[in-house]
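User: I've been trying to design a sequence by hand for this structure and keep getting stuck. Would you show me what you'd pick, starting by listing the structure so we're on the same page?

Assistant: Good idea, let's start from the same input. This is the structure you sent:
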């Protein structure tokens, strides 16, 4: 399978696309492609700086956030949870993970 779901709720989805080695963040119908390493960087970004970092990737993303009345806190949680899920998968696949 080429994509793996890392986070999914009623408005936000984050997938890892293995062929392109990138993450895909979907907010309603807007897609934001995140190059390798960007998900990790965004997950580590303080909430106060998240809006500017995402706007640097796609300036129209802020409009979509406002259109659907989504706070950046919710996107921050989704990004962080997706990164946690990705790290857990990496540990599980390394054979060093014991839940």
């Amino acid at each position: 399978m080429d994509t793996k779901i890392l986070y999914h709720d009623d408005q936000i989805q984050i997938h890892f696309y293995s062929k392109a080695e990138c993450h895909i963040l979907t907010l309603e119908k807007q897609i934001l492609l995140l190059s390798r390493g960007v998900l990790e960087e965004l997950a580590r970004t303080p909430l106060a700086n998240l809006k500017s970092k995402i706007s640097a990737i796609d300036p129209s993303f802020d409009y979509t956030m406002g259109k659907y009345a989504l706070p950046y806190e919710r996107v921050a949680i989704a990004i962080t949870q997706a990164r946690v899920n990705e790290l857990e998968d990496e540990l599980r696949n390394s054979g060093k993970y014991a839940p």
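That's my pick for every position. To get oriented when you compare it with your attempt: The chain has a mean pLDDT of 91. The two ends are 25 Å apart (CA to CA).
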